[in-house]
Amino acid sequence: MLCEARDEPFNDENYIWETKFDGVRAIVEVNKGVRIWSRAGNERTHQFPELDIRTKVSAVLDGEIVCYQPDGKLEFNGIQHRNRQNGVELAARQYPATFEVFDILEADGIDLTGLPLMKRKTMLSAVLILTNNVRTSPYVDDGIKLLKQIEWNANTSEKGVVGKRKDQSYQQNARAWIKVKVHKWGEFTIVGYTDGTGWRASTFGALILEDEDGSYVGSVGTGFNDAEISKIYEQLKSLHPSACPWHLCPSDIKGAHFVPPEITVKIRYLDKTKDGKLRFPSYKGIIS
């Protein structure tokens, strides 16, 4: 079962939301022993000898293997180091693994994939034996709140959230789950703006931004309401026009209106491109 990427989570009574961990997806077979398989179909049992995976009957489990630091932050190096020769024993000591189980596909030889998700969750709770490093992954109904909690919690490094229909069967290789990646937050300075079009023709289209090092990071044109657009535009018009702040003005902002770097704004974005521009930025407020 795979995920389709979305930009934002949503709340719907027919959906639950789980944390998307920064680890390795694993299918685990428990039947007179334990075998761990990667999503690509490679066996990885030998890479996680410390995992104490037990069930009350034979079972096939789906989940994410992660490694936590003592402070609770996820440490992906604990996964990567196990791919190196002779690195398993050291990684198991330094970055002990945890298996976050979120689904069950088979129990006591019975195929459960045709059951609705919430019935599979009930079966999982009945079959899985919780240990010091194996647990059921929690879920909530409010995906918007869960993503905000992850974004604002500096002590975690979860990758985002996953939404799943409560009545959905388990469909191998189908992208029927929804994943929303966690966004980053930053403070950037306005150094210019572009002309608006359409209903924003009388104000601005996008704000041109630089980071604290004075480097161009792109522009932001979403996330504003009408009142904020008017407020920001009035502040921009009160500033004296200036030249492009960079010796080589980026080609995508030539002809824009430039202002002194006096207004700082908070921006939410997914990540940065290789040339330092913000990916999917969204305005979230004025700092000063």
The CATH superfamily of the largest domain turns out to be: DNA ligase/mRNA capping enzyme
What is the helical fraction, as a range of percent? 10-25%
Level-1 CATH class name of the largest domain? Alpha Beta
Mean pLDDT: 91
CATH topology of the largest domain: D-amino Acid Aminotransferase, Chain A, domain 1
The global form is elongated
Helix/strand/pairing category: alpha+beta
Number of spatially distinct domains: 2
Poorly predicted runs: none
What is the CATH architecture annotation of the largest domain?
Answer: 2-Layer Sandwich
Strand content: 35-45%
Count all strands and give the number. 20
How would you characterize the largest beta sheet? 6 strands, mixed
Cα Rg: 24 Å
Number of helices: 5
Question: What is the terminal separation in angstroms?
Answer: 46 Å
Question: Which sequence of SSEs, written as H and E, runs from N to C?
Answer: EEEEEEHHEEHEEEHEEEEEHEEEE
Task: Describe the model.
- With 288 residues, the chain is α+β, with helices and mostly antiparallel strands.
- It folds into 2 domains: 2-181, DNA ligase/mRNA capping enzyme (D-amino Acid Aminotransferase, Chain A, domain 1); 184-286, Nucleic acid-binding proteins (OB fold (Dihydrolipoamide Acetyltransferase, E2P)), CATH 2.40.50.140.
- It has helices at 77-80, 88-94, 117-127, 143-152, 226-238, and strands spanning 2-5, 15-20, 24-30, 34-38, 54-55, 59-67, 97-107, 110-111, 128-129, 134-136, 139-140, 160-165, 175-181, 184-195, 204-210, 216-220, 257-269, 271-272, 278-279, 282-286.
- Strands 3, 4, 6, 7, 8 and 10 form a 6-stranded mixed beta sheet that branches.
- The mean pLDDT is 91.
